[in-house]
Amino acid sequence: MRILLEKYFSRNQIIEMMYLSKTGEMSKRRVKVINIQGDSFQAYCFKRNAKRTFLIENILALVPVVQEERGVI
Question: How many C-beta neighbours within 10 Å does residue 42 have?
Fold first, then answer.
């Protein structure tokens, strides 16, 4: 999971992740990674509209958010 996280961070991509909290609750978060350090990372969480710290080992799934281009065909 760390390798994917670093890849999306280097590409400055917004990601969507399934995350398991300390209390065992699962949540779906849309985040933008700010910093990766040790076994955790800081990200701006669009669900909470705030900077949060997450544990890498608690990520269940991770996918990039793809921005669709809108145009007239």
Answer: 15
